[in-house]
Amino acid sequence: MAGVPEKHKFVIDDPRKVLVVRDRGEANYRETQSVLHVPRPISTSVDSNVLDSVANKLDRALISCFLECHNKFVPRATFDEIVTQQIVFQIVSNLQGYKDKDSTTRHEIALKIYYGDHNQGPSRKLLCVLLQIERVGEFEELTQQGMSDDCLPLLMEQSNIDREFRLHCRLHKGKHTRINGFRPYVREQFAQWSRRLTPPFIVWEPDSKHKHYVLEQGDPLPMVRDDGDGVGADGMMPEEGGFSEVTRVRIDASGGRFTDHAVSPVVKYGLYVRSFLE
Fold it and tell me: Within 13 A of 144's CA, how many CA atoms are on the CB side?
């Protein structure tokens, strides 16, 4: 904050104390999962029903955020269980642009989608977003335009010229032209599913800087009600008076990493969230 005396700065503006996280914690999640992300043997058999099967599993995997039942997300661990290296290979083998290639080439394509390479990040979630909105045939062209999981979620922004809502990539600005060739309701579906598959990954470590996560309005938080001891079956804490209710919640098990090296590898935290009633 240029021109503002040091004593009047907010703590959040102090880079010595605060780390601003703009990728929703994606880099931290990949680091956490790097031990598990190793190439595994892949069967070359092809399942012609895999597209519908994966789409249905992801639909059923959706869970609601604790205070906004319409705002849903797929837990990261569940997504990893559904969309394995084998499944990515199966999807690739069913896509028009890839299915005529030999199995070795399809295997290489699947690994690039799963892991990314030195030129481009992984694109497994992008593949599934397109699958969920029935536009998976557009995958090859979109990745050729540089789109990957690093671009997600795409944001809906209204044009000042024609007032139409278009998808915007925070990394590449207007580079992904094909995506905005979709009909408006399809673009809206894309934005919705790109958020559902990229819930923030929250990291806390006792000796690290405070982390400030940059999120957008409507982003799902990976929290669910926690019906722990002393809490009612509905997750509500008894409280008299006022115009608010207090809910005990917990971060989804795969939605964060909370480490305290002096005590134990993982510490479970119970959180209480207050919401105002209209």
Answer: 7
186 sits in the region (left: phi over 0; alpha: psi -120 to 50; else beta) called alpha
- The residues near 93 (Cβ < 8 Å, ≥ 6 apart) are 46, 99, 103, 106
Q: What is the pLDDT of residues 89-132, one digit of tens each?
A: 999 999 998 989 999 999 999 999 999 998 999 999 999 999 99
Please report the DSSP string for the chain in residue order.
-TTS-GGGS-GGG-TTTEEEE-STTHHHHHHHHTTT-----------TTHHHHHHHHHHHH-EE-SS-TT-EE--HHHHHHHS-HHHHHHHHHHSTTTTTS-HHHHHHHHHHHHH--SSS---HHHHHHHHHTT-GGGHHHHHHTT--GGGPSPEEEE-TTT--EEEEBTTTBT--TGGGGS-HHHHHHHHHHHHHT----EEE-TTSPEEEE---TTPPPSEEE---TTS-TTSEEP--SSSEEEEEEEE-TTSEEE-BTTTBS-----EEEEEE--
- For 277, residues 6+ apart whose C-beta sits below 8 A from its C-beta are 243, 244, 245
The one-letter amino acid at 116: G
Identify the CA nearest to 182 among candidates 140, 130, 146. Answer: 130
Give the residues across from 237 on adjacent strands: 246
The model carries a pTM of: 0.80
